[in-house]
Task: structure prediction
Amino acid sequence: RLIPEHARKQNLFMALHT
Result:
């Protein structure tokens, strides 16, 4: 996994915000 766990969670948050 290149992307850390916390980063993955943030990515989901950003996708929801989009």
